[in-house]
From TrEMBL:
Alphabetized Gene3D superfamilies for the sequence: Rhodopsin 7-helix transmembrane proteins
Leader sequence residues: 1-25
Source organism superkingdom: Eukaryota
Name of this protein: G-protein coupled receptors family 1 profile domain-containing protein
Phylogenetic placement of the source organism: Eukaryota, Fungi, Fungi incertae sedis, Mucoromycota, Glomeromycotina
CDD domains membership: 7tm_classA_rhodopsin-like
The keyword Transmembrane belongs to this UniProt entry's keyword annotation: yes
UniProt topology in membrane: Multi-pass membrane protein
G-protein coupled receptors family 1 profile domain residues: 56-276
Single GO term (MF): G protein-coupled receptor activity
Transmembrane segment boundaries: 41-62, 83-109, 121-145, 157-175, 195-216, 260-277, 289-311
Listed SUPFAM superfamilies: Family A G protein-coupled receptor-like
Compartment(s) where it occurs, according to its Swiss-Prot or TrEMBL record: Membrane
Pfam families (UniProt xref): 7tm_1 (PF00001)
Amino acid sequence: MILDKFSMNFPFLLILPLLFINVEADGDRLDTPDNIKNFHLIVGFSLTLIILGWIGCIYVFYRIYKQWLLSKKRLAMIYRLPFYSACSDFLINFNFFTNMIHTAIYAQVWDDAPCKVIGALNWAFLTINLCFYAVIAVITYLRVCREIYFHYGKYDYKLWVYVLTGSAALQVLNIQNNGKRDYWCAAKSGQINSAIILFSTIGIVLIVILFCYLSILRKIRIHINDSSTSSSSNHNNDDNVRSAVIDNHTEIERRAAKKILSYTAMFMLQWIPMLISQGARLVKNEEPWVYIMGTIGRSFGGVGNVVQFIINEGFIVKTNINISDDNNDNNNILLKSNNNSDVHLESHINNSNDNKIIIISENN
């Protein structure tokens, strides 16, 4: 009875003993004496990173759930973004775990039919993640730099229409290339079409993200400098007030830059290894390090997302956070830091003036 109840609550744990069973299978095995070290390295590293990615996703889910309760079951976009990213990373890791667990147990990849399905799902989840980063970067750029506002729709369905459309287009381009590789199911060995597509996609998305976020940083700096100049002219007889304003401007810029740079850095840490892996595949390199780079590209997202979340929001849930839902306010952009000083940078569009006004406030 106890075993049955345990297996019902934790069914995934039943497969773990299989990892220690030497199962005979037909065909060439990957755990031959001359390849056993590479086999243990790739499989062990992949499963470890998958578990760490899952832990990161679960932590983000928990923090977002707590914030959802504190916000009376409403979430601002600054919390929905890490939640969506965690969902994407969780699906990538789940598919990769399904992929690798067969290799770990049987020292072989899946048969052709299931391998093509797993490879197609792998491609779908990876491209959804890439398109998501690109769409968010472009939307943020349009809001901050071009003052073009985007309504996400109910449950952010418009956002996901763009993401899924981009992913579907890439899936159509690659549908014929799914199959077996040495250690997992993805793009089949012996062809470079999928490597060309993924390499190009990662490169384009990286350029888009760098352009968008660097432009946002430049826009913030310009507005802060303009506001600082205005404050200096209005308070030229009061050095203390002018100094305090300039200090606030510097702090706001630092925090905004930290958030923007964290998104860019985590994207690069996840996808540049994958870019390197695809570059190696262009010359048909199947060395173990190529698979290690591919593993980082797939599974680092869950780890990077939680690190980024903790950097931006802190490790402990704050109960005194007041976040406005930017999806329902078309004329407001909020770049907000949740540290103790609660320094806010708000950007409003004045209906009677075409110029953007920066309002800086500090709550006591």
